[in-house]
Amino acid sequence: MNICVIGTGYVGLVSGACFAEFGLNVVCADKDAGKIDSLEQGEIPIYEPGLDTLVKRNVAAGRLAFTTETPVAVESSLVVMIAVPTPAAPDGSTDLGAVEAVAREVGRHLSSYKVVVTKSTVPVGTAGKVRGWIQSELDARGADTHFSVASNPEFLREGAAINDFLRPDRVVVGTEDDQAEAILKDLYRPLFLNETPVVLTDVATAELTKYAANAFLATKISFINEIANLCEEVGADVQKVARGMGLDRRIGAKFLHAGPGFGGSCFPKDTRSLAHFSRERGSSLQVVEAVIRVNEAQRERMLQKVVDVLDDRLEGRTISVLGISFKPETDDIRDAPALDIIRGLQERGAKVQAFDPQAMDIAADVLPGVEMCEDAYAACRDADALVLVTEWNQFRMLDLGRVKKALRSPLIVDLRNVYDPKPMRAQGFVYVGVGR
């Protein structure tokens, strides 16, 4: 089967490479000529463990190619996947401009049956809009070409995306006709060997499933952060509370980790989008609205921890920050808690010196005045406090003697609860965690 994936961002590139790994012939199309040129030269524009190897292997095998000629890619494919960005507008709604542009381009060049699939995260009802945009272009040129529209949302975790695609918890496919369903079932046939559950449903249900899943996970994060705040008031330990909760199989332990809140390209955007289009339909989701408020407040609360440990005297002080990306194993800083925390420190007169294993080049463009350091210990040098924001593995076993020697004052604010408070305090650190 030949497929094309339009959009070579995170979702498009990972999906295209993984479909090629299944043995399919895949063309990834993008209007950004510079990005396509880099990909053809083997340069991967994002950091995702294992992605560079996967792309190179499938390009070498002739199963994966890149192009700026979207019409050519569409013409040669049975399945056309739309994987372009759907950023949030200022009011929380989803900007579908890129999706519309792709759909109209497909309509202008459609000459034989295709299944057009929305892979991007889009509000309920978008598939109907895609159908309308394609049909309007067909009508404009007097063409009578049959096509199907389907929804196949992605559930990829940054840092673990390849495994999530090749060994998923489930695949959700929403279709409007039997022909499209049969084709997409065949597309995912390689996963049948792993007995991957495939949820076959209507388009609207598939679109909403992605939002519901992300909103629920975001809810767990905001919930445990509120519990952490309560733990600080009553003297309880949120990590032990979370363990006690998570051992209940109805709840589960994942996403019950107190910290500075959720960030990245999905949870903040998707919760705001879900809240927005629900309000538009007169069905306000009060739990999701609260999740958003709690997450926004949590960042300010984490900043206040640093302010408090320095007795509200940040002017002229130097703060070391470890971790800028919104989570480990990615260079993605979109809506990362570290950005708000660092900017808050700067606004209060502090100098910030930071280290992140992957995100510093990107972060330097949006964090003027922050000194990007060569490693964690350089970031600690002569700092008045250390703030651990992102729990990269290499931060879990720091040489604490070396850290203490590098710091001007032995103050550590651990926003991910990486370390145990008692041993830290026994070593002479003033240690502040979250919910403990």
Could you provide a short overview of the structure?
44% of the residues lie in helices and 14% in strands. It has 436 residues and is an alpha/beta fold. The protein is elongated.
**What is the overall shape?**
elongated
Question: Using only CA atoms, what is the Rg?
Answer: 24 Å
Low-confidence stretches: none
Mean pLDDT, all residues: 96
Termini gap: 54 Å
List the helices and strands and how they pair.
Blueprint: E1 2-6, H1 10-21, E2 25-29, H2 33-40, H3 51-60, E3 64-67, H4 70-75, E4 79-82, H5 97-109, E5 114-118, H6 126-140, E6 147-151, H7 161-166, E7 171-174, H8 178-187, E8 198-201, H9 203-234, H10 238-246, H11 267-280, H12 286-309, E9 318-322, H13 337-347, E10 351-355, H14 360-364, E11 371-372, H15 376-380, E12 385-388, H16 400-406, E13 411-414, H17 421-426, E14 430-432
Parallel strand pairs: 1-2, 1-4, 2-3, 4-5, 5-6, 7-8, 9-10, 9-12, 10-11, 12-13, 13-14
What does this structure look like?
With 436 residues, this protein is α/β, with parallel strands linked by helices. The protein folds into two domains: 2-201, Rossmann fold; 217-432, Rossmann fold (3-Layer(aba) Sandwich), CATH 3.40.50.720. The chain is 44% helix and 14% strand. The chain has a six-stranded parallel sheet with strand order 3-2-1-4-5-6, sandwiched between helices. Strands 11-10-9-12-13-14 form a six-stranded parallel sheet. The radius of gyration is 24 Å and the shape is elongated. The N and C termini lie far apart (54 Å).
